[in-house]
Amino acid sequence: MMKRMGFEWNLRRLMASQDMYQTTDLVPKLAEYGVHLSREQVFRLVTQPPQRLSMDTLAALCGILGCTPGDLITVKEVRRQVAKPAASGETVSAAEVPPARRVRVQRPEGL
In DSSP terms, which residues pair with 9 in a beta bridge? Predict the structure, then answer.
C-alpha cells in the first residue's frame, strides 16, 4: 500500500461559524487586508480546496476568521491501494473513493 498525504479544506465550515454564509461576504473583508480577488475567485476558494494559495491570502483568511492555518487545513494520510496483477492476468482496480455527497449549510433559526 502506498502512502499519500492529502488535506481537508475547512474554510466553509469556519465561515459558517462566523455567520458568513455567502462567498461574497469574503470579498470586502479580503480587500481590507490588501487581497483583491474577484467574486468568482473567492467562490472557488470557498467551494474547492485550493491547490495553490498565496501566503497573503492565507494570512488574510486567518485574520478574518480569527484562526490559524492549522484550522483552515487539516492534513491527513490518504491510503491508496496500488493495482496488483490478478491470477488471471487482469489488474485489480484501485480502492474506490466514496461518492461525494451534497451538503447544504443552513442558517441557525432566528437569523
Answer: 73
CA distances from 102 to 5, 24, 56, 105 (A): 24, 21, 30, 10
The per-residue pLDDT for range 2-61, each reduced to its tens digit, is 678 888 999 999 999 999 999 999 999 999 999 999 999 999 999 999 989 999 999 999
What's the Cα-to-Cα distance from 34 to each of 9, 12, 59, 68, 70, rounded to whole Å? 22, 21, 11, 19, 22
Q: Strand 2-9 relative to strand 73-80: parallel, antiparallel, unpaired?
A: antiparallel
Question: What are residue 80's DSSP bridge partners?
Answer: 2
Query: 87 pairs with which residues across the strands?
Result: none
**What domains can you pick out in the chain, each with its CATH number?**
2-80 (1.10.260)
User: Closest Cα partner for 61 from 72, 70, 52?
Assistant: 72
